[in-house]
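From the pipeline queue, job 12 of 40. The input is one protein chain; the requested action is below.

Action: predict structure.
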Amino acid sequence: QSLFPPEYKNRVYFIQQELQTEPENLIKIAASHPVTLCGLVNNASIFETGNLADIDHLKKILNINSLIPAILANAFTTTVNNGWIINITDANIRTPNSRFQNYRISKLILEELTKQLAFLYAPKFRVNAIAPGAMLPATHEDQQYFKQLAEKIPLQSTGDISSLVDAYEFLVKTPYITGEIIHIDGGWHLTN
């Protein structure tokens, strides 16, 4: 809570919720606080190795990365009158990769869900997605690999969180945009 300026002291509520069972309870709990809900960011995600040879793993990844965002979106749109939803996907999901195949498939589905939900919930709700690229290394061991990624990216650098925040603010403040996936990746998705 110390991260927030004093004027937010009574306006920020931290909620911890297990999403694998009854994720819609998160929206109910949020709505029970003395605030006006206006937006939902679906950022919960599992990023781990696995491919289609392991169907149980695929089900687990699809549940968290694709199905639960749809459940939360439905709960949100039935709880508030209007607002916005931002899904967090990934810029590097188009090229087949057997190591992270299930993860990539789940994020591709989330992109399609973004477009379909935008169509379904208009005009009361706007639904968009942010597809970040190389912002932070996934693990401590990936530091060298992360530095080398800049060579593959058209803008020749990895990103930072401020670019992600700028994209978030743009989507929240722009009332005439829905169904879009904004790549914050220095053009990395163009090389896939």
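Job complete. The chain has a mean pLDDT of 89.
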